[in-house]
Amino acid sequence: MIRKLLLITLISLLSFCGILFGQSSDAHNSYVLAVATSNDGYYFATGSADYSVKIWEMHSNYLVYTLNGHSDYVRSVAFSPDSSMLASASDDGTVVLWDVYSGNMIRTLDGHSDYVRSVAFSPDGTKLVSGSDDQKVIIWDANSGRMIRTMTGHTDWVRGVAFSPDSRLVASGGDDQTVRIWDINSGRTVKVLSGHSDWVRSVAFSPDGNTIASGSDDGTIMIWQVSSGRLLDTLGYLDSYIYTIAYSPDGNKIASGQDDATAYIWNIATGGSVELWGGHSEMINSITFDSTGNYVLTASDDYSVIIWDSYSGEFISSLQGDYYYYDDEYGYYDDDYYYDSYYQGSVTSVAFDEQNRYLATGGFDGSVEVWDIRNYNLVMSFYGHYGAVTGIAFSPDGREMATCSEDYSTIIWDLNSGYEITRFDDGDVVFAVSYSPDGRTIATANADYTVKIWQIDSGFSKTLRGHNDWVRSVRFSADGRYIVSGGDDQTAILWDADSGQLISTYYGGHTDWIRGVDISSDNQYIVTGSDDANVVLWDLDSGRIVNTFYGHSDYVRAVAFSPDGRYVVSGSDDNQVILWDVRTGDRKYSYYGHSDWVMSVAYSANGSYIASSGDDGTAILWNTSTGSQIYQFQVFYPEDYNDYYGGK
User: Fold this and answer.
1) What is the pLDDT of residues 167-218, one digit of tens each?
2) Selection from 613, 578, 609, 581 nearest residue 596 by Cα
3) Strands of 74-79's sheet, edge to edge?
4) Which of 217, 229, 274, 419 sits in a 20 to 30 Å window from 42, CA-based?
5) What whole-number distance in Å separates Cα of residue 442 and Cα of residue 440?
6) What is the pLDDT of residues 421-446, one digit of tens each?
7) Do the Cβ atoms of 520 and 583 come closer than 8 Å?
8) Under the phi-then-psi rule, with left for phi > 0, alpha for psi from -120 to 50, and beta for the rest, what region is 19?
9) Chain centre to alpha carbon of residue 190
10) Which domains does the chain have, with CATH numbers?
């Protein structure tokens, strides 16, 4: 555990410097033949025709280690159950064991006389199994590397191997079109499962151990009963070779990858499937679920690994640098390889803690950085999102932080340890998050037209329905009585925070999407910012427009009240941050410092500072008394995204 903590800390520090950034230069430069995820959820590993094995950080795609030790294609990789070791199998005829935390080679297992195509750990962590073109299945001692038993029976290449959940049985599939079940203690063949009409490339036990699935070049997935060897069901009947299969952790689904670059997630009970589309351009060699079952990873001959949403089948990210794509100009969410260049390098969100110590910044790449505003040093980095971080909020006591993202999730972080406490799946893009004053709940604004209130401890959520388009902003009132939200339907809505009932709708003040909302600390006013370039002040009780602040010449993306309610700050695509006097409606200061769109603004709890973040890769700290710039945080440098995405 200590080594794991040190490694995660090292990743956080080096990632900020760009050393471990998941650029295209880090990816494999040949076919990606294997992918596997660790049980602890931190890592995934890949094996390639470039002879290398790579370990990646799961929630950021940062490269941790490149492991060189094989002299030919790496066909299979597998993590030990405790995630401390990685095994790789190669056409050089060996299996190599690696230390995950140091990247060091532990030992090489020699025993096969031909290509080793598959390797797997036993669930109890004590053994390994490997299958080879030499038609042998070998059981190894995982600790000593000693060969325990060689099992023969296949009459052609062995392409896939798997352990049963109780570590007592092994399944293997091969070019002799059969699946064999072996007793590892005796080495005896327990069952021979015949039914496929072409090579069997992949086998997998169900999590409960009752069934085995096999994928074949005959285009089918067959599900067999382990105890009887009886064929229970057949899925697929595809016009393509099924190269790889995997069971979901709950045992309800099977994922498959084919030679025609398609992948499917099959519902075992119904036989229905979801296609993972719009990603690979060449055959898929390996497929796996992550430990939560929320994601599927695929490895392909197109040199890429893609992470998918296992429920919707939508593309999430790629090792070649393709994250969730979001067209900010049109509010369009695109799952293809299109990337909107002006969004590259953007610092998408900012927030102060209530103790006036820290400023948090969220990035286009899914990262979150926490900075000390007293000395401007980077304190900690957080990597858990796949898409741009759209909102950040600190808990009132300063112990936790909530972040939300285009990847459909909201994460609660422990600020002392840096660990993820819990994660909420909103089911669609999440645009904003706000903490209740008691720190027990958060509210999120969502692209599914709803506001959701989440109980942090229980995970229970309440859904507030009233908007008829995307909800882009949400905020609790200072006393916790109200929630205000604003959306693309050009309205702001006031909600009762306890009951979730709609109290008032504020409309008629804007002619375009509302991107920012806030409530004054005395519950007298609501302020909204819109794509019509205006900032509108509303009377909370009557819903009447009190004033409209004219001064911006482009979209207003964010607004915030000062803690005393006397001022409003707004940020816009005109690169300006403007401070407004609430009583008079006059502009007090215009802050010029960003060279691109201003994406987010925030007021410090003591009212001394304003923070703004921009599409220029910076966050700026401003003095509210003088209007002067205090410090500019260079969160992203041009090389962080120009090289990665091909330039802005």
Assistant:
1) 999 999 999 999 999 999 999 999 999 999 999 999 999 999 999 999 999 9
2) 613
3) 74-79, 85-90, 94-99, 105-110
4) 274
5) 7
6) 999 987 889 999 999 999 999 999 99
7) no
8) alpha
9) 41
10) 1-77 (no CATH), 349-645 (2.130.10.10)
